[in-house]
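Need MFS transporter's 3D structure for a figure. Predict it.
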Amino acid sequence: MDSVKKQRVIFGLPMLFWGLWLAILFLWMGRFVISFMSIYLVSTMHVDAGLAGTIVSMYGFGGIFGCLFGGALSDRFGREPMIVIGQLGSAAMLVILSFIDDPIVMGGMLLLYGVISSLPTPAVSAYIADVVPVPMQKRAYTLQTWALNFGFATGPIIANHLVKISYTLMFYTEAAMLTAVSVMLVVFFHRMGVDRMPSPATVRAAGTTGLPAGADSAAGPDPARPRKRPVSMAANYRRALTDWPLMSMVLLMFGYTVAYFQMTSGLPIAMTQIGLGTDEYSHVLTINGGILCLLQIPAIAVFNRMSNTRVLVLGMLVTAAGYMLQIGATSWHAFAIAAALWTLGELGTFPIAATTVAGLSPADARGTYQGIYNLSGSMSQAIAPLVGGWVISGFGAHFLWEACTAMFLLVALGLRLTKGARERAMARNLQERLA
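Structure prediction for MFS transporter:
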């Protein structure tokens, strides 16, 4: 019954995972247009800095809708089609964006681009839960997060060389990367037989695992079990939105990400106010990326010895310590120490949260569950800059860091109080998978 024994395994994880992981690494190394969009709008389209921020935020708002619907669509039509369609659609949108010279039109197209580019996000998370056995999912989601962080750290370096030649080249390069990786994924899925798998909804109707021959799930359903009718997208939404363990996790992670994303919205403003410049801020981000790339994979061994809740709570407390240090920070060195602390807190937070949501998700609603969970991150990316700017302008940077610290402590308390409900739901889902 064990799939992983029937297919090639590398470092304890199936080939079905590694093909997607390699694609994620390449995709995020080539994902840099949005990071340079504000500079492009100001320097090339001569847009006011304030308006440029508003235009770029449209991408974040689009991501809310992409995550909300991408997961449910992957439950209905399959993970792989949503992943490939989202990447090819994003490539087409990047080519269109390169021709736009009107700021208002750019804002509208960035909203649409945000929707399309976010469609694959929950499908990717659900795919990992589909193909990786439960005991190995912490490792899989941590490796996925490492690939994202490595790509995020190296992508801007590539883009910096491209924009020196032409901003248009930056758009075309990312579009070409998305297209090439999509082709690679289509070939990979075909070779592994994934393109012949039925959608998750059909899988439930047929009473099969949905994996290709020799790659059935870690504990596939008994063919003698009663067959269930396909679950509709509306039914999956109702199921997820009334699932207290999931929704409590989403609300808590929303509070965490709104506060944590002040590292890219409130922090540069606060550092500027005390006389530090972009060089010092970029060095802080380098510390963040460097620690994540160096320690995230070795940290897997530590995470495997701890419960999900313990990793998350400790991550919140360490992050709170980092943000607390920023309350009285007056030098780059203080901010650097603070960044090291909140980065250590981040090491396990995002991958273990994704692992937890995978454990909470019924097999035929994994995409929907991951989509609603990822909604918290997309909403935070859109809201965090507004919150940070408003709080700093009205109450000062010290109050912002105090509020963020308090938020992390509240989230840690909330995670501890809701531990029992989450663990019971995860145990119930595991029993159903093993039945």
